[in-house]
Amino acid sequence: MGVSGQALFAGLPFEIAEREIYVVRRDLGWSEREACVRELPEDQGPGNILLLEAQFEHGTEIVSGFGQLGVTAERVSKKAVGRMLGFLESNAFAGPYMADQLLLPFALAGGGSFTTVKPSQHSLTAIDVIGCFLDRRLSFTQQPGGMHLLTVR
Questions:
Q1: pLDDT at 62
Q2: Which tens digits make up the pLDDT trace of 42-59?
Q3: Which of 77, 95, 135, 150 satisfies CB 3.0 to 4.6 Å to 23 for a cystine?
């Protein structure tokens, strides 16, 4: 497994991205090599995004946190770190947004299953929509440890 984090920013003080990366390093235990700040050209801002990535043999999970006016850098970072920690601690195959993307291919394939963390509202809505067009039954079942198993029949 490999991990990386980047706080990308443009047209904002360096300190904002630096504070975000500090939280990543502190809370995830990632090194300076694994988590860094990257400044973009000023005309691409103002704005910032925190990108956290965990690479595995058969997939990659990416979590993001977008800076917002009035939201502290620490809050942006803590939310993204919390999502990444939740995924890493779950042993799930897919994060909630990747699970969203896998629903239709699994339904079109006619079956299968995979694990994810807590399903997003988008996933639940997509299951209803897929059921309107395909004769497939998709369902999430909570598993021990907080994972959810998606089954397509």
A1: 96
A2: 999 999 999 999 999 988
A3: 77
Q: Please give the model's pTM, rounded to 2 decimal places.
A: 0.88
- 152 pLDDT higher than 90: yes
* Cα-Cα-Cα-Cα dihedral sign, residues 109, 59, 73, 39: negative
Active site residues: 122
Q: How many CB atoms lie within 10 A of CB 95?
A: 24
Q: Do domains 2-89 and 96-152 have the same CATH topology?
A: no
- C-alpha–C-alpha distance, residues 10 and 61, integer Å: 25
Instruction: Specify the CATH class of 96-152 in words.
Output: alpha beta
pLDDT band at 145 (very low <50, low <70, confident <90, very high): confident
CA angle 13, 19, 20 (to 5 degrees): 105
The tokens of 49 are what? 């995004």
The H or E element that residue 48 is part of is strand 47-56
State both tokens at 35.
């988590």
* Topology of the domain covering 2-89: Dihydrodipicolinate Reductase; domain 2 (3.30.360)
Q: How far apart are the first and last CA of the chain?
A: 32
> In the chain, what are the domain boundaries?
2-89, 96-152
